[in-house]
Amino acid sequence: MKLKRFSDALNGIDFDEIYHYDAGTSNSKRYIVWTEEGEGTSEYSNNRHANQVIQGSVDLYTTEEFDVLVDAIQDAMDADYIAFTLLAVQFETETGFIHYTWKWEVS
Q1: Which of 12, 24, 103, 106 is buried deepest, with most CB atoms within 10 A?
Q2: How far is residue 47's CA from residue 82's CA, in Å, rounded to a whole number?
């Protein structure tokens, strides 16, 4: 299953604060949230899905500058041949978090 593959890749990181959809229960200064968001550019043949692509995002919230989790997340996706792009890095002044967002695709 495509989503399980992504979940397994991300959960292979040596880190306990990884959440699906929502991190409402986290009080951590570092946590990861991922979600699937819809279908990407899939391939069709004879009016049927030949290869469905699922897109989603993964967000890292951290207070650590140069956090090693940035590389760990990207390495985990690379190792499992999951396509991704780093979409944004921003500092959230209200929370003090550095917020990284990646868009990913699995097929």
Answers
A1: 106
A2: 26
Beta bridge partners of 44: 49
- Three-state DSSP at 41 gives coil
Q: Are 104 and 37 in contact (CB under 8 A)?
A: no
Q: Model-level pTM?
A: 0.91
Per the document, the length of the chain is 107
- Tokens 């967002």 sit on residue: 101
Cβ contact 104:52 at 8 Å: no
Could you tell me the pLDDT band of residue 45, with boundaries at 50, 70 and 90? Answer: confident
| The residue type at 76 | A
Place of tokens 């500092």: 91
